[in-house]
Amino acid sequence: MLLEAFRSSLSLPVPPSDFSLHEQALWFAGNGNWEKAHQIVQEMNDRLSSRIHAFLHRQEGDLSNAKYWYSKAFAALPELSIEEEWEDLVQRC
User: Fold this and answer.
1) Do the Cβ atoms of 79 and 68 come closer than 8 Å?
2) Could you tell me which residues come within 8 angstroms of residue 22 by beta carbon, excluding any fewer than 6 positions away?
3) Which of 25, 63, 79, 90 is a Cys-bridge partner for 40, taking CB atoms 3.0 to 4.6 Å apart?
4) CA distance 22 to 45
5) 76 and 57 in contact (C-beta within 8 Å)?
6) Which domain holds residue 53?
7) What pLDDT was estimated at residue 68?
8) 3-state secondary structure (DSSP) of residue 70
9) What pTM did the predictor assign?
10) Distance (Å, rounded) from C-alpha 78 to C-alpha 84?
11) How many H-runs (helices) and E-runs (strands) does the chain carry?
12) Alpha-carbon distance 49 to 40, whole Å?
């Protein structure tokens, strides 16, 4: 997904209906609704959702839980800012 189009969608009251669950989780994270984003990824079991799950725990400051989810995604804790990681994840969708 194009980052600018995704950013523009953040002004909508709800995520677009054609967004995947991954995109919905990132949309809610981008709108500051950590709980809803976490609720979505908690129900999923694939590598990208594990990366998003890791990101969410990193965002909340729970690094031990984040590291667990990065390992489930076969990824290392990134050396990116939270914003840069969010952008990277959006572009992976």
Assistant:
1) no
2) 44, 48, 49, 52, 93
3) 25
4) 11
5) no
6) 3-9+18-92
7) 97
8) helix
9) 0.94
10) 10
11) 6, 0
12) 9
